[in-house]
Amino acid sequence: MSGPAASLEVSSAERPVAVRVRALSRVHGRGVQQVLALENIELDVRQGEFVCLLGASGCGKSTLLHLVAGLDQPTHGEITVEGGQPAVMFQDAALFPWLTVSENVAFPLEMRGMARAQRAQRVAELLELVHLDGFAQHRPHQLSGGMRQRAALARALAQDARVLLMDEPFGALDALLRDRLHDELERVWRATGITILFVTHNPREAARLADRVVLLSSRPGRVADQLEVELPRPRRMDSPDVALLAGHLTRKLKEIIRGGARDENDEV
Amino acid sequence: MAALATRTMKSDRRAAPEALAQARTGAAAAWRRAQGPLLAVLVALLIWELVVRSGWKPQWVLPGPAPVLRRLAQEFSSGEVLAAARITLGRASAGFALAVLIGTAWGVAMSRVRLLREALAGLIAGLQTMPSVAWFPLAILLFQLGESSIQFVIVLGAAPSIAVGLVSAVDHVPPLLLRVGRTMGARGFTLFRRVIFPAALPGYLAGLKQGWAFSWRSLMAGELMVFMADRPSIGARLHFARELSDAEGLLAWMIVVLAIGLLVDALVFGRVENSLRAKRGLGEDV
Hints:
The complex is a heterodimer.
Chain A: H1 10-13, E1 17-28, E2 35-46, E3 50-54, H2 61-69, E4 76-81, E5 87-89, H3 101-111, H4 116-129, H5 145-158, E6 163-167, H6 175-192, E7 195-200, H7 203-209, E8 212-216, E9 223-228, H8 240-267
Parallel strand pairs in A: 3-7, 3-8, 5-6, 6-7
Antiparallel strand pairs in A: 1-2, 1-4, 8-9
Helix pairs in contact in A: 3-4, 3-5, 4-5, 7-8
Chain B: H1 2-12, H2 17-24, H3 27-53, H4 65-77, H5 80-112, H6 114-129, H7 136-143, H8 147-171, H9 175-183, H10 188-225, H11 234-243, H12 247-280
C-alpha cells in the first residue's frame, strides 16, 4: 500500500464484519464457452464502512454485487451478509412506473408488513432525508434523473437493511448532478450508519466516496489490490487530495490491466 | 466530428411532457383530434354516393347515404336502435366478461407454469386462426339455438387473445423490475400481483382490446346464425332486413354495428389506455 493520502485505518478494522466473501468464484456459461468471471474473491466489509469496488468495464464487479445481493448463485465459495437480504440500487432507478414516489418508497415497508399509519410516517421521513419532500405524489416519469435516483435511494433505505449495495448508481447522470448526489449519499450514509458496497469504474468517484477502495482485475476478476482512504470528510470531487488519489488509483488500475494482458500473452 | 456534434445537440433537446400534455387538453385540441376521423367519414360518404350515382347497382339494392341515414334516424327516434343495442350489448358484455375471467386465469396459469405454456402454445395459435363462425355448428349441437351457444363462441373467440396478450406482456416485463421486487422481499404470488401484473398491464390491456374486437365479431356472426325471433337484437334486425330485401334497413343497421364497435373501442379501451399511459408517462402520440 503506497501512494499519497493512503494509509491503514485502524479503527475500522476493529468493527465487526457486515459482508464476508470467502473463496468466491463464478463461472459463466458451459463447456467450451465457459468464462471464469470471478476467481477466488476474498472480501470483508466492516459495519458502517463505505467500500468501493473499482475495476474496468466487464471485470465482474457487477457480477460480484449481484452475488452478494443474492440475485445470482456462486459457483464456489460463500457469502454472508449481516441482517439478511441487502438493499440494492442499480444504474437505472427502476422505480415502479405505476406507483407514485411515496408508494414506491412504501413498497418495501409493505413487503415487511408495516402498518399503514407507520408506513406513511416512515415514507415522509425518508423522503425528507433524500430531499424529495414535496414530490411524494409525483409519478417517476415526472422526476428528473437525479430525483429518480434519490427516490430509489429512499426506497432502498426503506428496506431497513444493514447493507446497501450500489451498482454504478450515478453512472448515467451528468457530472454536476453526480457531485450533488455524492454529497447527499455521504450525508445519508453518515446519518444512517449503513454499510455500503459501491461498484464504479470511475477512480474519481471511488476517491470521493470510499473508506476503502478494492481494485479488481479483469478476466478473471480477482482482488488485485486494496487501498484505505483516510482523506477527511466531507470530500469534494475537485479537491486536490481527491484528484491526487484518483490519479493514483488510475495508474494502479492501468498497471492491473496491463499485468492482466501480460499474463494472457504468457499463456499463449 | 460534425455528425457527432449534431447528435449531441439533438439529445439535449428534450421536450417537457407535462407542458405538452397541458397544451393538448381543451376544446381546441379536441377539435384537432376530431378533424381526421371526420374527414374520413366525409370521404367514405362521398365515395358511397359516387358509387350509387354511377348506376353500378339499382337504388333498391344499393341505396345512397341520404336515404340510409334518414332511415337510421327513424330507427333511432322510434327507439328500435336502443332496444336492439340493449339486447346485443347485454350479450356482448356477459360474453366478454366471461372471456376476460377465463382468458386471464388461463394467461396467469400459462405464464406461471412452463409445462402448461409449452403444452398450450400450439392449441392457442390454432384457436386464434379458427374463424369463430366455424364454431357455431358445434355450439348449436351442444347448446341448441340459444344464448349459451352465442356465449360459448364469444368466449372461444376472445379468451385466447386475452391469454396470449397477458403471457406476452409478462414476458416483456423488464427483468430489472423483477430483480428490484425480489430484493425488496416480494416473492411468489406477491411478486406476481404487486410487480409482474402491474408492469404487464399495458400489454394485458392490448390483449383485452383485441379480445373485445373478436368477441364483437363473434357475437355478430352468432346473432345472424343463432337467430331467435323473440329477441330483436342487432343481428336479428340485419337478418330481417335481408329476408325482406330491405336494403336501406340493412345498411342502416350495419352502420349501427360499426358505430357500436368504434364507440366501445374509443370510450372504454381508449380512455383506460390513455389514462394508463398518462400515469406512466408512456409515449405521447406523435
